[in-house]
Write a structure and sequence with these properties.
globular, Dna Topoisomerase Vi A Subunit, Chain: A, domain 2, four-stranded parallel beta sheet, alpha/beta, two-stranded antiparallel ribbon
């Protein structure tokens, strides 16, 4: 079962399980208790798709966040990464993935209709597309841009060289995006 978790292969899962069994009282039992509690209390925010313990998450309930900015992310992990950076003060919308013809994932399988509804009913002045720079991410961004055309201002995160990044370690796509999105000094 552990090997089915993202990021764990069979060998890593086996090592983790053996470690937990050896540390049964200190780690396994408390972890099992916490997992039962999370299973009973965790729920998806009905508004944005974040994970919390109430029907509407703390971010959506925060009146200081109702500033017209809506950041669209692929999944909750991306939302948490943005929050960890502590630079975005608006609200979020979690899509739950990206469009993928190969995996038969269309707009209805994602939270795209809910996004369009939010733009129409909330006072959204800007939608920031913070999707991964993959083919599926870019396809999804273009689809959303078509759906929201003339409804609100659309922007996307800048792409290119990360802070502290060395050109030698970057892939060709990142270098290309960085060069084409260059700005004057």
């Amino acid at each position: 079962m552990m090997a089915k978790l993202p990021g764990l292969g069979p060998r890593s899962a086996r090592r983790a399980v053996l470690h937990l069994i050896r540390k049964r009282e200190l780690q396994l039992t408390p972890l099992a208790d916490l997992m039962v509690q999370v299973a009973a209390t965790a729920r998806e925010c009905l508004n944005c798709g974040n994970i919390g313990t109430t029907d509407i998450c703390d971010i959506c309930n925060n009146p200081k966040r109702a500033n017209g900015l809506l950041c669209v992310v692929e999944d909750v992990a991306d939302l948490w990464a943005m929050e960890r950076a502590a630079v975005f003060k608006g609200r979020y919308h979690v899509l739950g993935g990206t469009l993928s013809a190969l995996d038969q994932i269309g707009p209805e399988q994602l939270r795209i209709p809910r996004l369009v509804d939010r733009v129409e009913t909330e006072e959204i002045t800007e939608v920031i597309l913070a999707l991964n720079a993959t083919i599926d991410g870019q396809t999804t961004a273009h689809y959303i841009a078509d759906q929201l055309e003339d409804r609100t201002r659309l922007t996307s995160l800048a792409q290119g060289v990360p802070v502290g990044g060395e050109l030698d370690y970057l892939d060709d796509g990142t270098i290309s995006a960085a060069l084409s999105a260059r700005k004057a000094l």
